[in-house]
Design a protein that fits this description.
single chain, mainly alpha, 6 helices, about 70% helix
């Protein structure tokens, strides 16, 4: 029985770009994963969860990643710098979106939306 090797860089990219839809969960665990369907169900709220998942996946050491997702595949992971660049971009974009959401919330609460 051949088991597909789960690529950490691809999982990080899926979580960063399509994490709001749970694409990384579908890639890692398949279509029967209940948490993946929760991402789809709560899409607008799950975007931030996707960013957090991208950070968690990207910062997981390769040895721990292989023990969790590639124990049977026999192929060791070698993530390299691309996964770190994805993590840095995810952190920057996620932080910017979080600050924008907080600013918009304060605008709506304290000025009634006078600034946009």
């Amino acid at each position: 029985m051949t088991v597909a090797h789960k690529n950490k860089t691809l999982a990080t990219l899926l979580a960063a770009v399509l994490g709001g839809f749970g694409a990384h969960r579908f890639y890692l665990y398949g279509s029967k994963d209940r948490r993946a369907w929760l991402y789809v169900l709560f899409f607008p709220l799950s975007v931030f969860a996707g960013f957090i998942a991208a950070l968690m996946i990207g910062l997981t050491p390769d040895e721990k990643w292989d023990a969790t997702h590639n124990a049977i595949s026999g192929t060791p992971s070698d993530s390299g710098w691309l996964v770190i660049l994805i993590v840095i971009a995810t952190f920057g974009i996620g932080t910017g979106l979080l600050i924008a959401a907080i600013a918009r919330t304060f605008d709506l609460l304290y000025t009634g939306g006078a600034y946009g």
